[in-house]
Amino acid sequence: MSIKIYLPFDYFYLKSPINLYGQVHINDDNVIVYYVMEGFEFESSDNAMDQGSTQMRFLGAILNADSYADQNQHHNFDMRLCFTYSSVKDNISLIYIGITPERLKHIKLILFEKSIMRNLFVAAEPENKLPLEEPKSRECDFLELFRLAQPPVDIPTKNNGAKRSILNLLNIIASLPITLFQCIADSAIVNSVMVHTTVYKHFKEWQLTYAKGSRTTNIVLDRVMGMIFMVILFSLATKPGDFLIQISHAIIGHLYSLLKVLEGSPIGLKLNIHLNNFFLDCFKYHIELWSTFLDFIEPLVRQVYLAIGVFGCLGLTFQIALLADLISVIGLHSHCFYIYTKVLYNVERKGLSVLWQVVRGNRYNILKGIFKLFVLLGRTEAHNYMNRQLYLATIFFSAILFLFPTTLVYYIVFAALKALTSACLSIFEFFRRKFLDLPIEGCLKWLIKGCSEIDCLKIIDVSLPREEFLMNKQNKINVSVYKIET
């Protein structure tokens, strides 16, 4: 068992008698921790018990060592700690401690600045935590110091009750958009379609972040920025619906230009004329269908901007999620082109691999093979093929070999287009996720109050001109003095 005493730095060099108030905790590892948080003018009466705040208890006092009467005060009152000051020493000395284990040989006196501990940045604990769970503040002395150093909560009055009612009303109004969205998203008909969208996935992530209760500032800032963007969108954009139609037709025009480049001999490549014309006809027909579909849903597309603006009531990240879904819909035809070319590329690549073994006079044996360095080797074996088998294999191999470069060119082009679209969506996803995870509250507190994180705190040894010790039953107990700094 050991003892730790946390004492404000100013009290360590105090030259006047005061009463000390704080808390006492016994940790799971049998460490007795005294937290001295407040000090009031010394009173040698029972009134000393009632001077502290509601969450603090009377711990002891700092007395004058030169006065014999003050020296015996800890015997008359229920003191757990007692320090003395004198004109000989600059600092106070520990002369009495209420709980003293038999084998105690060392006491740690740790000094701290109230301003540092009060402004310590600590993530908030979830509100839905079970009451049987042990608070995190009890697991770490610094967290408990942070909790005790906070200013006391004002006693509820009529004015405070009115303010609280107004705040509750504003909270209900602020949570109304997300509640309405949740009711719409949870309906069976809408949920079957919406579950595959980025907006729905972001809504679930937002709910988890909100349930943790550690990123309230992020959520508020997200809501404010979303409303600002909504106001800008509705006030500055005269015809926002035309902008989406123009973007859609611009993308279609660029795809036509891309197919026109592939029509000849792009960058000097000699493509198969018939296969190239087949690809061009298929893709152009697909683009025409998509253009016709956009013209058909043009009135609906013009209202998408209205949905993006209204989503500002939910937050900027919801607007980004809806924009990501909109980009996925606009680039659906390019995604289809990538799927078509990818399937043809994989079929031709696999066909060349299989026919190459036939041309070489080998075959694939699934029952044969050995593992070497986690790779299966030796599954091919020699085989006598018939002449007509070799003839057909050679014809198919030659045909696929000459068609493969054309397919490869289309696959590379549309794979690059797919990669650009995926990169754009990844940037949006990264921003909307990191926006809710960034420690914005900690940064703001650090800029305004100079807050520090708990990992930045360090304990240094305080050198004193004389060694401190406590005499208990003619036993000398060493007292080491430390200080918490950033």
Question: Layout of helices and strands, plus pairs?
Answer:
Elements: E1 2-8, H1 9-12, E2 18-26, E3 31-41, E4 57-64, H2 68-71, H3 73-76, E5 81-85, E6 93-97, E7 106-112, H4 114-118, H5 141-149, H6 158-186, H7 188-194, H8 198-212, H9 216-236, H10 240-263, H11 273-296, H12 298-302, H13 304-310, H14 316-330, H15 332-359, E8 362-364, E9 370-372, E10 375-377, E11 380-382, H16 387-437, H17 440-449, E12 458-461, E13 468-472, E14 475-485
Parallel strand pairs: 1-3, 1-7, 4-5, 7-14
Antiparallel strand pairs: 2-3, 2-4, 5-6, 8-11, 9-10, 12-14, 13-14
Helix pairs in contact: 8-14, 8-16, 9-13, 9-14, 10-11, 14-16, 15-16
Detailed description of the structure:
By secondary structure, the chain is an alpha/beta fold. 54% of the residues lie in helices and 17% in strands. Strands 1, 2, 3, 4, 5, 6, 7, 12, 13 and 14 form a ten-stranded mixed beta sheet that branches. The model is unreliable at 125-138 and 371-376 (pLDDT under 50).
The oligomerization state is single chain
The percent of residues in helical segments reads 40-55%
Tell me, what's the shape?
A: elongated
End-to-end C-alpha gap: 28 Å
Beta fraction? 15-25%
Q: Kindly state the mean pLDDT as a whole number?
A: 78
Low-confidence stretches: 125-138, 371-376
Please provide the count of β strands.
14
Quick recap of the structure?
The protein is α/β, with parallel strands linked by helices.
Descriptors:
alpha/beta; elongated; 486 residues
